[in-house]
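Q: Could you fold this chain for me?
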Amino acid sequence: MKLQLIGINHKTAPVAVRERLAIPESHLEEAIKRLTAHPGVDEGLILSTCNRVEVVAHSNRGDADLRGFIREYFHLEPAAYEPHLYEYQEHDAVRHWFRVAASLDSMIVGEPQILGQVKEAYTTARGVGAVGSRLDQLCTRAFAVAKRVRNETAIGLSPVSVASVGVELAKKIFGSLTGKKVYLVGAGKMGELAARHLLANGASSIFVANRTFDRAERLARAFNGEAIHFDELYQTCDQADIVVTSTGAPTAIFRREHGERFINRRKGRPMFFIDIAVPRNVDPTMNKVDGIFVYDIDDLQQAVAAGMANRASHAKEAEAIVDSEVQGFETRLRSLDAVPTIVALQEHLEAIRQEEILRARGRLGQLSPDQEHAITALTRGIVNKILHTPISVLKDSAGRGDVRSTVDLVHRMFDLERNAD
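A: Sure. Below is the predicted structure, expressed as structure tokens.
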């Protein structure tokens, strides 16, 4: 029996390669069916995201050619992807899968999306009947490992993007973002992402101002917000608690005198400027105005770097959790390898016990209920004493990792008929 995993990810392959092996969600069920029909594959699932494509299989005979499956399914020249493939078996496959689910192998370590993607891959494969006992155990344990990492470490708490840093800083300033208004100045992608994060964390509404009003309208519609003509910027900006600037203006569009005017109109209520433009849209002297808080792209990037460093330190704790879980998982699997032999041994000795009781009845004649009970108790006691040592040895060998040789020995000693793996 063998667990196998093969794949590519953002570390081993550029997007030009990854996109050629990506499997659309609409084709995933058919791909999994073809995987389980591939020679040697008894169970299988496929994880396909923008950052990775991984094929996981369990083979009772241990001879599944997953590289062959990739060749046959994608019809690509192997030279186009072979140098980027990684392949793991047994212990290494378990460890890799646990690390993937726990977001330790992600582009941004600690991001939560990958666990949902792993769960979807499992659900899809299970839905088409491709998941048996081994992959079911692997995945359910991987989910538990991810939960442990999330609960027992702070790996997911440190912000690691400009947008998430902006949200965390805004929370520190306002305490809560519930009901706060956002003003997006410029229609760049980074500004849009920051606005999305702010709205997702409780901000109530958004204004959008852009030199091209049509773009402002399109973006405002996407957020159910309000588009503002750019020449009305200074008359309306004080309505917002958080201002995100991302225009291509060559000089600052917000200066100290603007900040003083806004604070006066707001009667001292604070404003937070997230300036992600280069060159900067907000003059640094705005920070000298009481109640005005300004963070430019360098400030935000420093916070991102600090978040990444924090996650790296927490990742060490998470790796230790994964290592212990891999060891425990493999011990449980080895114990399962001993179960069929334990059951066969119990059935074998029970059959002998029943046979000997029948033979004794032929010599002893009719027995009273008390005599029947005494013979049953006596013979069961003998069988249990005989079973005790081989069962204990089988269980101990599972913990040590040499269960296969012990299973073979017990089968020879008791002349058990081995069940085919």
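A (continued): The longest strand covers residues 2-9.
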